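Why does residue order matter? Because the sequence determines the fold. Keep that principle in mind as you read this record.
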Amino acid sequence: MLMAHPAVLRNLVEQYDTLRILQAENGDPEVQQRMDDIAYTLCISTGTRDVDAALIAARHRLPGARTQDDSLLTT
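Structure:
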């Protein structure tokens, strides 16, 4: 599976989050259509089937999303 670049994923997640706020405020059909388009793109980009899973997968792939394993560090 091809993996989307983290910058692309970050942009999609930010757009979706912004549109979700706009949709909650005014319920504009154009905003909903754009959300649907971005949700579809996120799903394709992350290999998932629903937007919630896509958002989780995208955020997981962003730089700094994973914690570092410090079990090998000595004190």
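The CA atoms of residues 16 and 35 lie 6 Å apart.
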